[in-house]
């Protein structure tokens, strides 16, 4: 089996939405195994990290990541939104959990029990754009409050360590060794 570099194989194709399907077709032709590739994208959806910041940017990063894998599935002729039991519907309960409880509750109040993942992602984007401040879970609030400012003792300790390192450098080689640290 020959070792190929995927990036080199599609390097000449401009990165646009119009060329996305073409690039995937080239990679499918070169590397084959579309079922394995589809499984990897489903696995990536499953393993996608939860939204770290319930801000417009944080939500958009998660939505973009999920949409990337859903578009790849579509390009592999694995339509995630159609069929008797679509992938998006099967993954909806788990993927919802990657968003804040506040966003999930807002979805439940607005839509009810609809398991349309495409609509949920659009809802999350609209909700993020209207939200002036970040949503925080209780654990995030406690963590941020406890880490606001280092105590005076910790500041003195870190300053003491810095001073000790500088003293040692001066003793070892004088001023010249301090300026040559990065060289």
Automatic annotation (TrEMBL):
* Bias (Basic and acidic residues): 141-152
- Annotated region Disordered: the residues are 128-158
Task: Tell me the domain of life.
Answer: Eukaryota
Q: What is this protein called?
A: Uncharacterized protein
């Amino acid at each position: 089996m020959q070792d190929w570099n995927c990036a080199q194989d599609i390097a000449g194709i401009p990165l646009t939405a119009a060329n996305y399907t073409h690039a995937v077709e080239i990679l499918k032709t070169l590397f084959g195994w579309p079922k394995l590739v589809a499984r990897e994208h489903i696995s990536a959806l499953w393993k996608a990290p939860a939204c770290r910041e319930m801000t417009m940017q944080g939500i958009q990063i998660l939505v973009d990541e999920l949409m990337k894998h859903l578009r790849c599935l579509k390009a592999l002729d694995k339509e995630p939104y159609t069929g008797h039991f679509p992938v998006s519907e099967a993954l909806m309960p788990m993927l919802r959990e990657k968003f804040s409880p506040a966003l999930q509750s807002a979805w439940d109040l607005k839509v009810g029990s609809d398991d349309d993942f495409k609509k949920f992602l659009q809802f999350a984007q609209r909700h993020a754009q209207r939200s002036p401040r970040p949503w925080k879970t209780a654990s995030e609030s406690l963590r941020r409050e406890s880490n606001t400012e280092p105590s005076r003792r910790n500041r003195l300790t870190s300053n003491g360590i810095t001073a000790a390192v500088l003293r040692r450098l001066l003793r070892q080689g004088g001023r010249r060794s301090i300026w040559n640290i990065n060289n």
